[in-house]
Specification:
single chain; alpha+beta; Serine Threonine Protein Phosphatase 5, Tetratricopeptide repeat; 4-stranded antiparallel sheet; 3-stranded mixed sheet; 9 helices; PEGA domain-containing protein; transmembrane helix
């Protein structure tokens, strides 16, 4: 990964240590109000520790010290050192914002010192030198968006307004991700200083919508119809078989379809079987004819209604010469 070269003309931090922290004692009461000597002494010690860590190349630890000191006693010198630590850590975008914050510090209510003025001037110069080195990344998303998407860079969600726009970013490897529901598309990119890159994330087609579930009520009716129809067909089969058997028996006992009185009971039983067979056939056909179509292509479940229904309220209204009812619905 390419890093911005260190500026050889910059004096070591330790050379301006006395001036920088002597300036802290000259803050006007409006700035240092409520800060006792112990607080300023702690800030000075943290700053000194940060400079030592910076010179050792321990930039993350140095940044922590400078930030803590700046929280105790805000000063341009501390903000400048924090910005330089961010540059060394490769966090160039954050460094430009920290430089800018230093240049915008209001010193009108402070006892302005040469160290403070120089820190602001150095911050302005170093920011202008750093800005052209920032890589930029443009993220584009194509394909069906469905109900909406979210875009992430290195696990952090970015505003959708930045999609399709150049976005400053730190050098180094990055992961870009777009999410649409359960669908995720990722791409990795490795950037160097001054590089301009575009990443296109292509979303796959939307999944086919699930068929609507059948209405439970009509599904129950369908199974009842099938059950009744199956019972009717079973009755049709049983009684039909008995009727055929009885018919063959009566044909031998009653020639020319004329039965003697002793076989009238058998003839009546045969008639009952015929009626039962017909009834079973009708019930079976009707039951299956209603149940099977309902089961295959019955009504789907009705969409859920909004649970928040407007309540109906009313109250009598009685006034001078008037009477009535007032309500809401």
């Amino acid at each position: 990964m390419n890093r911005p070269p260190s500026k050889p003309t910059r004096a070591p931090f330790r050379t301006c240590l006395p001036l920088a922290f002597a300036a802290l004692t000259w803050l006007a009461p409006a700035v240092s109000s409520g800060q006792d000597f112990a607080t300023r002494s702690a800030a000075r010690k943290l700053g000194e520790e940060g400079i030592v860590l910076f010179d050792k190349g321990q930039y993350a630890e140095a940044l922590e010290k400078f930030n803590l000191a700046d929280q105790l006693v805000p000063a341009p010198t501390l903000g400048l050192r924090a910005a330089r630590s961010l540059v060394k850590l490769g966090r160039l975008v954050e460094a430009t914002e920290r430089y800018l914050a230093v240049t915008r510090m209001d010193l009108s209510r402070t006892q302005v010192t040469p160290a403070f003025r120089k820190a602001q001037a150095d911050a302005l110069k170093e920011r202008e030198e750093l800005l052209p080195l920032l890589p930029s990344l443009t993220i584009e998303v194509t394909g069906p968006l469905g109900d909406g998407i979210t875009v992430f860079v290195d696990g952090t969600q970015i505003p959708l307004a930045l999609v399709g726009q150049k976005r400053p970013i730190d050098p180094g490897p990055h992961e870009v991700e777009v999410r649409r529901g359960e669908t995720k598309v990722k791409k990795k990119v490795d950037l160097v200083v001054k590089q301009t890159e575009k990443v296109v994330l292509v979303l796959p087609p939307l999944p086919k919508p699930k068929p609507p579930e059948p209405d439970p009520f009509w599904r129950t009716i369908a199974w009842v119809g099938i059950g009744v129809g199956a019972g009717g067909m079973v009755a049709f089969g049983v009684t039909g078989g008995l009727a055929l058997s009885k018919q063959q028996e009566l044909e031998s006992k009653c020639p020319n379809r004329t039965c003697s009185p002793e076989f009238h009971a058998d003839a009546d039983f045969f008639d009952a079987l015929r009626y039962a067979t017909t009834a079973g056939l009708v019930v079976g056909v009707m039951g299956l004819g209603v149940g099977v179509p309902l089961l295959i292509a019955g009504p789907t479940q009705a969409p859920k209604k909004d649970a928040k229904k407007a309540a109906f309220t009313w109250a009598p209204v009685v006034g001078l010469g008037t009477a009535g009812v007032r309500g809401t619905f």
